[in-house]
């Protein structure tokens, strides 16, 4: 950690970590629900294996345990910024392709987008505490390759939601790790780890 | 000796005569003589060929063929009667073969060489469409035309039952000209050289599932193909939840055929081509209906500013978003066209059209279209006969008389063109209810007043008002809010 923690800062950080863990847990369950609805509404095969699409952040991390707290937060922040723009693209496409036809799916997508935006803001706040001056916004996020066919967009959406569900698990673990390494912390409850 | 002499004409004026030799050995020059009619002397010339081009005779032609070979000279004479001369049109040539991938249509253009023939002859063109390296005939069509003694470019379209991307398509054409006055045998021309439109399965890295994200009508038969790299193998192709038997098109292309397609979900029906556990490709097919004819189209105005047309949509098309149904309202007299923003989820459809200055009659055409079809509905409206005023607002009651009051109310709208009939409901404390009608000239966004007399003193009354167009009853406005008032003591 770059800055020595004053007691109030440490308290604030533990609070942000705990709240972040709960946010991630809630987000994960909502993403799982959305994933089920998405697969059903888009007529996809739930067991289909989907290649990783360009621009979709991958949750699996090599040398995860060697990462510093700041690195964890930076990777999380970059991922959720990407997810924020990916979900916004999906929502835009949903409206373009279906209009008002599938409002429930659109609303569920919008709800998860809101949570991702909130979680992104939460990470920025936490990063401000852990390492002053978070990186500036990285531009509009991954552009949607215009040549994707509708079927590829459906698969891409499936890949985004699956990866986001993985990231929610990883984020909870990252925040717990951050919590452990902050002075005077005791390990926070971990709803995300419950089966 | 020369034998087996045959003559063929392509244009009724000149003919090609060809013969064979009994012996196979080398032949020197041949002396060829012919007459075109009984009176003219023979025309002779030398040739090394076994084929000559000479004029078509009026009735018959005497031909003598003298051949010189190592074994000596031999002469053979023939009389060729007109009825022994065959007529075979020139082999046609395809001028252009143009694909329209969006509609899976091939456009064929060719020259009919009509200038060679007299006016008015019937010509038949046989066109063959082939696949699989031009070995499998998929369609043979006979196209009819009339020759006009001029060279005419003929054009013809063929729509494939599968996307043109799926595999290469080959086309060839031949013709038959029905020359009734020609006495000799008539036959089809030779086939033209084949023209080809390459499929995506010939492109080095061509791959994909076709058609891509297309819309078809419910009940259609659809062929969907999967194109993959050389050496890859398709495990299976599914349409929605079902696996379909595959049709082999080429080493890199297979297809499935879906018959009588049923309506798809809003997000379309996925067609998936599974190449391996980790590799798949696919497309989305939207199966829906053409727009239904609108029911109960009516148009009215509430304020002489805007005309609202409503209708019942009928059966949903099953197509949404950018494939959804588009609505536009065209007014014939003014030529104005308005695009309607319609919410497909509403039971009734609404479209607004501005009231135009100095125009009372409106001749509407409601155009409804989607990628599958289009329907129209028309309606002629005299706006003054279709007034449905807004609810009267700000009803107030004033007056300190014991037997009369003044009512005031506001109607949002520009009614200067018509007379209004307003009905006032009077309910007194003894639950006695009376209706009082008052007619007045409409005005622009105005407050209207009416005086009620012969009321009972010191009595509590409830008043409310509604209005409609006095001269052409169409619809009452809704009732205003109720206003209470107690008359003063006598």
From TrEMBL, chain A:
<feature type="compositionally biased region" description="Low complexity">
    <location>
        <begin position="181"/>
        <end position="195"/>
    </location>
</feature>
<feature type="region of interest" description="Disordered">
    <location>
        <begin position="176"/>
        <end position="195"/>
    </location>
</feature>
<keyword id="KW-0339">Growth factor</keyword>
<comment type="function">
    <text>CNTF is a survival factor for various neuronal cell types. Seems to prevent the degeneration of motor axons after axotomy.</text>
</comment>
<dbReference type="GO" id="GO:0030424">
    <property type="term" value="C:axon"/>
</dbReference>
<dbReference type="GO" id="GO:0005125">
    <property type="term" value="F:cytokine activity"/>
</dbReference>
<protein>
    <recommendedName>
        <fullName>Ciliary neurotrophic factor</fullName>
    </recommendedName>
</protein>
<dbReference type="GO" id="GO:0048143">
    <property type="term" value="P:astrocyte activation"/>
</dbReference>
<dbReference type="GO" id="GO:0008083">
    <property type="term" value="F:growth factor activity"/>
</dbReference>
<keyword id="KW-0221">Differentiation</keyword>
<dbReference type="InterPro" id="IPR009079">
    <property type="entry name" value="4_helix_cytokine-like_core"/>
</dbReference>
<keyword id="KW-0217">Developmental protein</keyword>
<dbReference type="GO" id="GO:0048680">
    <property type="term" value="P:positive regulation of axon regeneration"/>
</dbReference>
<dbReference type="GO" id="GO:0005615">
    <property type="term" value="C:extracellular space"/>
</dbReference>
<dbReference type="GO" id="GO:0043524">
    <property type="term" value="P:negative regulation of neuron apoptotic process"/>
</dbReference>
<dbReference type="GO" id="GO:0005737">
    <property type="term" value="C:cytoplasm"/>
</dbReference>
<dbReference type="InterPro" id="IPR000151">
    <property type="entry name" value="Ciliary_neurotrophic_fac_CNTF"/>
</dbReference>
<dbReference type="Pfam" id="PF01110">
    <property type="entry name" value="CNTF"/>
</dbReference>
<comment type="similarity">
    <text>Belongs to the CNTF family.</text>
</comment>
<dbReference type="GO" id="GO:0070120">
    <property type="term" value="P:ciliary neurotrophic factor-mediated signaling pathway"/>
</dbReference>
<dbReference type="GO" id="GO:0005127">
    <property type="term" value="F:ciliary neurotrophic factor receptor binding"/>
</dbReference>
<keyword id="KW-0963">Cytoplasm</keyword>
<keyword id="KW-0524">Neurogenesis</keyword>
């Amino acid at each position: 950690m770059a800055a020595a923690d004053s007691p109030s800062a440490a308290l604030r950080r533990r609070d942000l970590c705990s709240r972040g863990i709960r946010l991630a847990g809630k987000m994960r369950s909502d993403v799982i629900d959305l994933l089920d609805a998405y697969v059903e509404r888009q007529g996809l095969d739930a067991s289909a294996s989907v290649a990783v699409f360009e621009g979709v952040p991958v949750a699996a991390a090599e040398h995860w345990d060697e990462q510093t707290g700041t690195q964890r937060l930076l990777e999380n922040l970059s991922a959720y910024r990407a997810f924020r723009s990916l979900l916004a693209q999906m929502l835009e496409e949903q409206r373009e392709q279906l209009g008002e036809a599938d409002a429930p799916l659109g609303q569920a997508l919008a709800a998860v987008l809101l949570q991702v935006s909130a979680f992104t803001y939460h990470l920025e706040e936490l990063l401000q505490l852990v390492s002053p001056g978070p990186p500036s916004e990285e531009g509009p996020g991954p552009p949607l390759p215009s040549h994707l066919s509708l079927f590829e967009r459906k698969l891409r959406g499936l890949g985004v939601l699956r990866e986001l569900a993985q990231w929610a698990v990883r984020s909870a673990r990252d925040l717990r790790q951050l919590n452990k390494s902050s002075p005077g912390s005791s390990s926070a409850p971990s709803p995300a780890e419950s089966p | 000796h020369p034998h087996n002499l045959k003559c063929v004409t392509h244009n009724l004026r000149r003919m090609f005569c060809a013969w064979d030799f009994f012996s196979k050995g080398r032949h020197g020059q041949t002396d060829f003589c012919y007459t075109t009619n009984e009176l003219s002397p023979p025309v002779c010339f030398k040739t090394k060929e076994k084929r000559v081009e000479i004029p078509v005779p009026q009735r018959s032609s005497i031909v003598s063929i003298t051949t010189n070979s190592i074994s000596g000279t031999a002469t053979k004479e023939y009389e060729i009667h007109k009825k022994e001369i065959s007529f075979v049109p020139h082999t046609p040539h395809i001028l252009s073969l143009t694909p329209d991938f969006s509609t899976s249509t091939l456009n064929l253009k060719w020259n009919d060489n009509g200038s060679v023939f007299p006016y008015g002859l019937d010509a038949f063109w046989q066109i063959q469409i082939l696949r699989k390296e031009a070995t499998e005939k998929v369609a043979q069509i006979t196209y009819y035309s009339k020759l006009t003694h001029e060279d005419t470019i003929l054009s013809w379209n063929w729509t494939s039952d599968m996307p043109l991307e799926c595999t290469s398509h080959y086309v060839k054409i031949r013709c038959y000209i029905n020359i009734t006055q020609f006495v000799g045998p008539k036959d089809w021309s030779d086939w033209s050289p084949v023209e080809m439109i390459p499929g995506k399965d010939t492109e080095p890295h061509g791959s994909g599932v076709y058609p891509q994200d297309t819309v078809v009508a419910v009940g259609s038969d659809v062929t969907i193909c999967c194109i993959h790299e050389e050496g890859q193998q398709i495990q299976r192709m599914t349409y929605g939840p079902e696996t379909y038997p595959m049709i082999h098109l080429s080493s890199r292309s297979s297809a499935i055929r879906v018959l009588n397609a049923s309506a798809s979900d809003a997000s379309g029906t996925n067609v998936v081509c599974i190449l391996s556990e980790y590799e798949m490709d696919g497309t989305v097919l939207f199966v829906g209906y053409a727009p239904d004819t609108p029911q109960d189209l009516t148009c009215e105005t509430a304020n002489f500013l805007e005309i609202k047309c409503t209708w019942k949509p009928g059966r949903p098309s099953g197509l949404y978003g950018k494939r959804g149904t588009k609505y536009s309202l065209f007014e014939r007299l003014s030529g104005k066209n308005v695009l309607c923003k319609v919410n497909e989820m509403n039971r009734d459809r609404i479209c607004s059209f501005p009231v135009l200055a100095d125009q009372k009659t409106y001749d509407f055409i409601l155009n409804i279209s989607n990628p599958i079809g289009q329907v129209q509905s028309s309606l002629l409206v005299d706006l003054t006969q279709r007034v449905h005023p807004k609810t009267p607002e700000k009803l107030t009651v004033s007056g300190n008389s014991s037997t009369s009051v003044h009512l005031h109310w506001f109607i949002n709208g520009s009614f200067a063109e018509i007379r209004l009939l307003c009905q006032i409901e009077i309910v007194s404390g003894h639950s006695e209810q009376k209706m009082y009608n008052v007619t007045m000239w409409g005005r622009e966004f105005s407050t209207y007043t009416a005086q009620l007399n012969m009321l009972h003193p010191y009595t509590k009354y409830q008043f409310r008002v509604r209005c409609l167009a006095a001269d052409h009853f169409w619809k009452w406005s809704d009732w205003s809010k109720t206003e209470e008032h107690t008359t003063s003591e006598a």
